[in-house]
Write a structure and sequence with these properties.
By secondary structure, the protein is mostly helical. It is built from two helices and no strands.
């Protein structure tokens, strides 16, 4: 997906994300929400996957 995504395992060593990483995470969340609005969400499974991915990107 365009080389954009959250990398929550990257911070396992306790280092804080950089400013660029925070922008990448925010962009990923915005893209997920836009795609969900454009394509639509058909069932609760997709809602669950979307919310889990957004929460993983936000950490």
């Amino acid at each position: 997906m365009l080389g954009i995504g959250c990398r929550h395992s990257r911070y396992a060593d306790g280092l804080e994300p950089t400013h660029g990483d925070q922008h990448r995470q925010a962009l990923t969340i915005v893209l997920l929400l836009v795609l969900a609005a454009v394509i639509g969400v058909q069932d609760m499974r997709q809602v669950l996957y979307l919310s889990l991915h957004i929460s993983a990107c936000a950490t």
